[in-house]
Amino acid sequence: MIIRFVLNGEETQIDCAPDRRVIDLLREDFGLTGIKEGCGSGECGTCTILVDGENRLSCLMLAVQLEGKSITTIEGLAGENRQHPLQEAFIRCGAVQCGYCSPGMILAARALLTENPEPTREQIREALSGNLCRCTGYQKIVDAVEAAARAMQKQKEKAG
Amino acid sequence: MNRVLLPKNLPELWSFLENEPEARVYAGGTDLLVQMRARCADNLVLICLERIAELTGIREDEDGFWIGACTTFRHLLNHPRIREQIPVLAKALSTLGSPPIRNMATIGGNICTASPAGDTLPPLYVLDADLILSTQSGERVVPLSGFITAPGKTQLERGEVLTQIRIKKPEGYRVQHFEKVGQRKALACAIASMAALVKTSPAGVIESARIAWGSVGPTVVVSPDAEAALTGKTLSPAVLEAAADLAGKAMAPIDDIRATAVYRRRVAANLLLRIGT
Amino acid sequence: MKSFIPEIGCSIPRADGEAKVSGEEKYATDHYGDGLLWAGVRRAGIPHGRIRGLDAGQAKNLPGVIAILTGRDVPGTNRQGIVHKDQPVLCTDKIRHCGDPVALVLAEDRTVLAQALALITVDIEPLPGIFSIDDALRPDAPLVHEEHSGSNVLLAATVDKGNAEEAFSECDVILEETFTVPSVAHAFLETENGIAWQEPDGKIVLVVSTQAPFRDRFEISHALGIPMDRLRIIGPYLGGGFGGKDGATVQCLLVLAAIHAGGRRVKMWWSREESMAAGFKRHAVRMEYRLGAGSDGTLHALKCRLYYDTGAYAHLGGEVMALGMEHASGPYRIPHTLIEGWCVYTNNPVAGAMRGFGVAQVSFAFEGMMDRLAEKLRMDPLDLRMKNALQRGDKNGAGVTMTHSTGIVSCLEAVGSHPLWKGKEQWMAEAPPFKKRGVGVAAVFNAMGYGRGLPDSAIAKVELTAEGKIRVYCGVSDMGQGNATAFFQIAGGVLGQENDAIELVQPDTARTLPSGSASAGRTTYTYGNALIQAAEELRRRIIGRAALMILADTVDELELLPGRVKHLKSGREIPLNILASVMPPEDRICISQFIMPVARDGLETGKAFFIGFPHLLFSYAAHLAAVEMDELTGTLEVKAYLAATDAGRVLNPQSYEQQVHGAIAQGIGYALCEEIKLEEGRILTPDLATFIIPGAMDIPDMMSISVETCETSGPYGMKGAGEVGINGPLPAIAGALAQACGIRVKTAPLTAERILEAMVEQQTACERKPS
Fold it and tell me: How far is it, in rounded angstroms, from Cα B229 to Cα B251?
């Protein structure tokens, strides 16, 4: 069936099986391999995408559910810019090790900061609690989200 | 290949259900799609309820709330009136799954999955929630307490869909408590959980107590004996311990991969002692 | 980002960071291709048995199935294994664990693959299984490997010095205890996977998530009978490894599939459940300890018996046990030791390398004994450790003289002077209602490198490219630990070039040179040393060739600067691209090998170890855990954590802290919740919903102190930092729990259930005591 949606800011349509998992569709048909798969059952968060700004698990969504939605993947996060402040902070703060959880973590953090631009460390930990990381112990990830939140606030002040 | 239907409104849903009586219905997909993955399911018809406007949203009236069955946990948690008026539910929601799961999963899904470990069930029991079950031709109202008959089994009939949940405001219940014991803080299936509503007089005498436990029986466990033992007393450790003993008798937990029955019974009863702090 | 020279000692951002946060980095999982085929494995599902027959008829007829292969289709020896070649690529007769592969299917897509796998029926005659160490050691036990020396003992060994049996009579206090730890999974987020294809010239290319691409080539060649020069293995960045990708996972299966794919690409990607069932695990171990000391706390004698459950195949079992035995006496001076070990085959999942390789297990035991001794003698647990801690010149428990950096005393001092230790009484006293608090410490160590019996070697290759840039050919994988960034810094530091002029090539048997596995805390040490030599040679060459161009009569007047060589006297400069254009390709490449030094003591013990014993270099750490236990639920929460680590000089403080944090977090998981539960060889915790690893809310903010000794043999004085940190949390947390409530748990993990049960027992015991 034909499914129409917005993918990383661009109107898109694709003919595919309605029960195709969204993760497979995006990775295989659109080449967006920044979305990872770690468990296939909603337990690890590596397949996180933003659906209308909300972080969701693309391994538990079927293609038909994309209809009419706006999807952001890690590849589209920065938009016109070279890097999103979260991506910049993840590198600078040492939040990346093997990097397999990083795209999902960054998108989950993006969803948090949209809703709560000045989160506490505890709120950051809670917001990232659906994304497992086996390398970092999470501390530098929390540092990075804090740093990005500050940077984004500064950007906003400059713009305003 | 499985067919997946995405009805936009209730009339469309009813016609899909009429044509596909064997269809499996899902909302967030966080339970059904996980089960299907394990079974390599094929040639099924799935109906996804997420786009049906009549099934999402929260409406408040004088006595309480009408909650659309496909309202996500995130939506509920972000609702200031729910947080303020029924913190026992909000606390349970905040321990459920993880943020992305809460962005997808729905309250109706949690009820209809009918897991003994369903996190919203103990609070909804103590709140005496009612369920509105609808078909093309009409609807009926059933109390949640009888709806779940066994793990994974409900009174839902063929062609029937849970459309609304009715919760009355627990007026005067000063203590609204929920606690879950899991293997970690998030992404944790309850080993035991407890929801409690306690109404006390200005002097601290318990006028009414409603308590329900999750994961210690095939469905939610309540203990009228324990509730009676609390009524008329104050929230002292001795009173709570006596009630906890009675509650333990009502439980019928099982051993599973997460915990033994012995631990479940012990910890579930212990949770009652926390109300005193 | 501004350009910079990636110098040693600075927290330069990771070389792989940008590609990873943008989603551009291509892990093995991210390779697809036109006409892709999917390969999958039908697994036995039965822990022990004999294959009577296999019917793939229905599966073969399914449209979209390309081939179904069994053991009979394997062209070579059909045997894999790092030390003992005892593991079939596809089983032909005997099944030894549930995850054993019996058939390999190639299909057009994953749906067809899943259907075909489900349609294959295997007729297996069940055999009585061996599911525990005691089962395995029974004299009449059925054999997991009939051809193996008539018993289920893969390896029995002794490490001793002095005379422990007699020495116990000289002790004022003797303590005994038995500890057990379960098997656990690495739970890397990128499960085992790869993609392979046959080139038109017949060569086979395999892109695979691996910690040991060069050993993989050897394994595949042996098992499938393919000459090594027909195989090319490419090892991109890994989505985690932790030891679990050190050895054969998908490699042989994929190459076998590629042979039958007619030049099409074949992808295999294990599901999480398959990874749990068929992937390697950390060994479950039982540890029986007897420790004797003087009344002043001076350790005098240690005797212990260690039993490692290695599962169905040898893999690295013997070597894991060897390292455990070498560390069984802790980082302490003990004059008399007798350490006996048995590594046994069972019909459980295959155990192998995992961060802390056999040592994470014994650390629970030796530090548990130290805590018990401190309690018995009413000594401060930190003082007791300090008193016995190894110093340079001492012999360790295996009899090796510590001739290199030995920083455990400094680590303990750093913990002892920290506010978390000094203020612990007050913090414990401030516990909220229903909570008990405790603070525990642990002293741990971890050897570096392969040990004797196998040269621990790396061969670095560095090139001045035709464009005048520096290219480092990394022969050893980066699974996330950050060695590639260290190589980036070493090349940048030695050659003085800026970050955008340095390029890293990840392991590829066609381009990089054999540098061993990413394991044993050896990657940066061994390859780094080789790279320093190669880069220095390249620097000399660049300056030497520039001297010819510039007609300088001495190289002393020339300096290598970013992008150019400068003649300091005249100010003349030669850009590196110009210089490179006149150098022939072979002149622009420098290659250098480094082999790690080994212990020189003439030991008369540990003779049973073929390789991997003893070691010369160790990293050390002292850990502190502050925990809060809930009396109503038994739940244990780590509230604060401190690690003081001696891993020599720090090349990159940020990378270093990443290793410390990550190891602590994994160690906290090992301490609190991680456990592979088995029932007759079947995994009851098959996924991440049941095998519980810590999430963001379960790990506290951690403090890391670097106690920088200088390891003179290491590149710029460094030692491996990756492993030692995982050994501390379990014993430190167990010690903290005992401080909190007097409960000494001797079985890991310290689950809420175990703790609450122990508290009930403790109460019952108290009530029973006559007053």
Answer: 16
DSSP C610: S
- Give residue C74's Cα distance to chain centre: 30
Distance from CA of C553 to the nearest CA of A (A): 45
pLDDT, one tens digit per residue, over C37-96 is: 999 999 999 999 999 999 999 999 999 999 999 999 999 999 999 999 999 999 999 999
The reply to whether A65 and A106 lie within a common domain is no
Instruction: Write out pLDDT tens, residues C271-324.
Output: 999 999 999 999 999 999 999 999 999 999 999 999 999 999 999 999 999 999
Q: How far apart are CA C578 and CA B179, in angstroms?
A: 71
The pLDDT tens digits for C299-311 are 999 999 999 999 9
Find where tokens 């050896």 sit. C522
Class of domain C17-25+457-595: alpha beta
Max CA pair span of chain B:
65
Asked if residue A97 and residue A151 are part of one domain, the reply reads: yes
- CB-CB: which of C684, C695, C753 is closest to B259? C753
Q: Are B270 and C115 in contact (CB < 8 Å)?
A: no
The whole-number average pLDDT for the span C200-228 is: 98
Instruction: Compute the distance between CA of residue B132 and CA of residue B112 in angstroms, rounded to an integer.
Output: 12
Q: Residue B271: enclosing H or E segment and its boundaries? A: helix B261-271
Q: What is the pLDDT at residue A63?
A: 97
List the single residue in A55, A60, A111 with the smallest CB-CB distance to B29.
Answer: A60
- What is the interface pTM, i.e. ipTM, of the complex? 0.98
Q: What pLDDT, on a 0 to 100 scale, did the predictor assign at position C298?
A: 98
Nearest CB neighbour to C190, from listed A35, A100, A129: A100
Residue B94, φ and ψ in degrees, nearest 5: -70, -15
Peptide bond into C13 cis (omega under 30): no
* Phi-psi label, residue A115: left if phi above 0, alpha if psi -120 to 50, beta otherwise: alpha
Chain C residues whose CB is inside 8 A of the A142 CB are 696, 701
- Cα–Cα distance measured from residue B50 to residue B120, given in angstroms and rounded to the nearest whole number: 19
**CATH number of the structural domain C31-127+192-269:** 3.90.1170.50
Which residue from C minimizes the CA distance to B263? C753
Task: Label residue C149 by pLDDT band (50, 70, 90).
Answer: confident
Q: Hey, are the CB atoms on C237 and A98 less than 8 Å from each other?
A: yes
C771 band by pLDDT with thresholds 50, 70 and 90: low
The residue of chain B with its CA nearest to that of A56 is B100
- Using CB atoms, pick whichever of C658, C688, C699 lies closest to residue A97: C658
C619 CA to centre of own chain: 14
Can you tell me the distance from the alpha carbon of B115 to that of C710, in angstroms, rounded to the nearest whole number? 58
Domain that holds residue A65: 2-76
CA B169 to centroid of chain Cα atoms = 16
Fold match flag (C31-127+192-269 vs C284-451+602-766): no
Q: Which residue in chain C has the smallest CA separation from A142?
A: C696
CA distance B78 to chain C (A): 21
Set of chain C residues whose Cβ sits within 8 Å of the Cβ of B267: 632-634, 752, 756
Q: Considering only CA atoms, which of A62, A71, A52 is closest in space to residue A20?
A: A62
Distance CA C245, CA B70 (A): 43
Any idea where the domains of chain C sit in the sequence?
A: 17-25+457-595, 31-127+192-269, 284-451+602-766
Which residue from B37, B48, B99 is facing A130, i.e. has the nearest CB?
B99
Taking the CA of residue B97 and the nearest CA in chain A, the distance in Å comes to 8
Rounded Cα–Cα distance for residues C703 and C643 (Å): 6
Distance, CA of C508 to CA of C473 (rounded, Å): 9
Taking an 8 Å cut-off on Cβ atoms, the answer to whether C21 and A36 are in contact is: no
Q: For residue C114, which residues of chain B lie inside 8 Å, CB to CB?
A: 40
| CA–CA separation, A120 and C413 (whole Å) | 33
Q: Which residues pair with A104 in a beta bridge?
A: none
